[in-house]
Structure to design on (642 residues):
């Protein structure tokens, strides 16, 4: 189970608490979204959380600082999800160094395909910092094999053509595509994301992959919990529920 | 000699590229393959030329501005009259060619982004002509200041989708168009309106706009028997300017001058002068210059001209800037509005506010001119769409 939260929504201190709650609820990896002004791969919910975090002035540096603080209290794998421009302005080499020092395990960059910024990607590889690659419904088999060969950390398997956001129905051929991807992935774990939002979907996908990424549905729970101020508990309960462990 | 930019991977030096989600990688490659095939296909070329001529009204005149030249005191000012084209701007050159490409690729659903609404109108027009379904994303702020164009698009049968996120202008409309494309990628053709975005768009849109420069080059040689000293064009995303400049790339004596929008003034931070005041960054699929803060968050651009109100710029311009092949300057809203009035009064031509930026630089340029130096200004569009906005302002 890999929940996604936008770092800094509703605030940085809150995100720290949520992360610890998610770990306690059984999250295997936690994805930390770095807010960006133009999140082209995201649907309305994550756009909203990203804009809210930006209003609070949350930066990539702040997110690394938060990771450093979290590392005193948890060893759960933490992966950042950021668009490329904040990394470019931070300095790609410096980012790899600082991220490793802070205790970040990898980064997911939705607008960085494997063929761009080869220096940065090679530097990350040399230093053992995972740049997670994607395989999507439009990726042809030969390219998927090439991506699988280079993959580090895990393969982010995009369930559907589209942007992030909870969907009631997932594509009919998803399981078949997952099975094919598992076959070429070798020992690299394959995790499914985009659209997943219900325990039933998690249960159904479980046997076909190594992990399920849930983003918009988690952010939605945070938003719903904001009024009652108990969003940490609510989000943790949601993750337990997704995992099928009712409390 | 032919210039060979971009390279095979879609880069102009360090600029350009394909900074896009994995889901779009294969569609972009398919698009590139289709475009390469069409470029070699004589029937595609003939079809594009046919529509440019008999539908859009090409070739456009190269008009000598006698009065304007005499007021400026130095130089011979020519206007490349893209404003006379069907739908009122150069955007139709690209929209027609891409529409024909989309049709030949078997795509029936078109999405586009628009700022001023000129590209939206051009796209809606082409969709009406070819019977394609058309969805145009437009920021709500732009819908307000370009209400006439919203009406035109709807009249042409397009769906205008209001975009309320971020700055509610072109940048956000483009993000939404990309989100639509990534979601409906099997059926949908993304008809991008300028020379930005991921490869192959900057190359393809440039090629479709070079008709401006190719004609202008022939015309000026015919009229004057010599090449111009300067080419001047406004730069939003950069398509009318690159379309004028590129065919002169190897004429080393010809200087390129791109004019950006300084909005309320460069010092106020409220402008769209990406090449003059921005830094290298990645937005909407390409590495180029970008208006951004030090954290890499994209800034909200400002210009009185909706078509220039974009914090990015095409990667080929970034390359021209870096290599010194072109110079870039910026003029304020106020200067552009003055030039808008000046051309109207002196030549009886109402220019688009976007094009007025190019005109507004002429008084500054004139100081560096000799009496007989030829200057070609790209009059990228006509100003009817702006009359409404300006008539509400007090001047
Ligand atoms: C008349 C006119 N000129 C110029 C532009 C700016 O675009 P570009 O820089 O791509 O030519 C626009 C954009 O809408 C326009 O409508």
């Amino acid at each position: 189970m890999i929940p996604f939260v936008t770092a800094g929504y509703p605030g940085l201190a809150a995100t720290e608490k949520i992360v610890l709650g998610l770990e306690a609820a059984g999250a295997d990896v936690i994805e930390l979204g770095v807010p960006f002004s133009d999140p082209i791969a995201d649907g309305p919910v994550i756009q909203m959380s990203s804009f809210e975090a930006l209003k609070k002035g949350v930066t990539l540096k702040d997110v690394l600082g938060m990771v450093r603080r979290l590392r005193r209290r948890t060893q759960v794998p933490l992966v950042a999800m950021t668009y490329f421009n904040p990394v470019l302005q931070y300095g790609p080499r410096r980012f790899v160094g600082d991220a490793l020092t802070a205790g970040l395990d990898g980064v997911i960059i939705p607008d960085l395909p494997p063929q761009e910024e080869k220096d940065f990607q090679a530097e990350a590889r040399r230093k053992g910092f995972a740049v997670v690659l994607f395989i999507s419904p439009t990726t042809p088999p030969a390219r998927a094999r090439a991506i699988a060969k280079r993959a580090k950390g895990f393969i982010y398997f995009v369930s559907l053509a589209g942007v992030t956001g909870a969907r009631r129905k997932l594509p009919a051929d998803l399981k078949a595509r997952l099975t094919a991807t598992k076959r070429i992935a070798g020992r690299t774990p394959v995790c499914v994301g985009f659209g997943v939002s219900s325990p039933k979907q998690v249960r159904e996908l479980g046997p076909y992959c190594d992990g399920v990424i849930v983003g918009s549905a988690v952010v939605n729970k945070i938003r719903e919990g904001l009024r009652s101020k108990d969003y940490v508990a609510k989000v943790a309960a949601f993750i337990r529920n997704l995992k099928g462990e009712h409390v | 000699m032919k210039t060979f930019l971009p390279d095979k991977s879609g880069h102009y030096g360090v600029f350009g590229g394909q900074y896009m989600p994995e889901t779009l990688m294969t569609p972009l490659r398919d698009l590139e393959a289709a475009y390469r095939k069409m470029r070699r296909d004589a029937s595609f070329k003939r079809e594009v030329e046919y529509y440019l001529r008999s539908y859009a009204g090409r070739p456009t005149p190269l008009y000598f501005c006698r009065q304007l030249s005499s007021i400026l005191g130095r130089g011979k000012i020519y206007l490349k009259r893209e404003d006379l084209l069907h739908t009122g701007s150069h955007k139709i050159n690209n929209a027609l060619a891409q529409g024909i490409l989309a049709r030949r690729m078997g795509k029936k659903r078109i999405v586009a982004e628009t700022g001023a609404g000129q590209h939206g109108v051009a796209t809606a027009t082409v969709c009406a002509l070819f019977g394609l379904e058309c969805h145009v994303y437009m920021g709500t702020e732009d819908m307000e200041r370009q209400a006439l164009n919203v009406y035109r698009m709807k009249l042409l049968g397009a769906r205008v989708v209001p975009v309320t996120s971020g700055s509610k202008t072109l940048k956000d409309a483009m993000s939404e168009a990309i989100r639509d494309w990534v979601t409906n990628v099997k059926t949908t053709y993304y008809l991008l309106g300028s020379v930005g975005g991921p490869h192959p768009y900057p190359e393809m849109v440039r090629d479709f706009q070079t008709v401006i420069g190719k004609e202008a080059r022939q015309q000026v040689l015919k009229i004057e028997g010599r090449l111009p000293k300067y080419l001047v064009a406004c730069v939003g995303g950069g398509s009318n300017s690159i379309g004028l400049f590129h065919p002169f790339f190897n004429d080393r004596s010809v200087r390129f001058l791109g004019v950006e929008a300084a909005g309320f003034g460069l010092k106020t931070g409220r402008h769209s002068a990406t090449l003059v005041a921005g830094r290298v960054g990645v937005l909407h699929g390409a590495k180029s210059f970008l208006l951004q803060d030090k954290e890499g968050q994209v800034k909200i651009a400002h210009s009185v001209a909706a078509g220039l109100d974009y914090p990015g710029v095409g990667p080929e311009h970034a390359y021209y800037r870096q290599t010194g092949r072109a110079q870039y300057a910026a003029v304020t809203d106020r200067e552009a509005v003055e030039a808008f009035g000046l051309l109207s009064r002196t030549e009886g031509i109402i220019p688009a506010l976007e094009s007025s930026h190019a005109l507004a630089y002429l008084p500054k340029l004139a100081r560096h001119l000799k009496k007989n130096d030829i200057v070609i200004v790209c009059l990228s569009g006509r100003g009817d769409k702006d009359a409404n906005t300006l008539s509400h302002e007090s001047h």
Notes: The interface with chain A takes residues 9, 17-27, 165-166, 171-172, 175, 178-179, 182-186, 280-285, 287, 290, 292, 294-298 of chain B (CB under 8 Å). Chain B is about 45% helix and 20% strand. The pocket of pyridoxal-5'-phosphate is lined by residues B 89, 91, 115-116, 118-119, 194, 234-241, 307-308, 352, 354-355, 380-381 (CB under 6 Å).
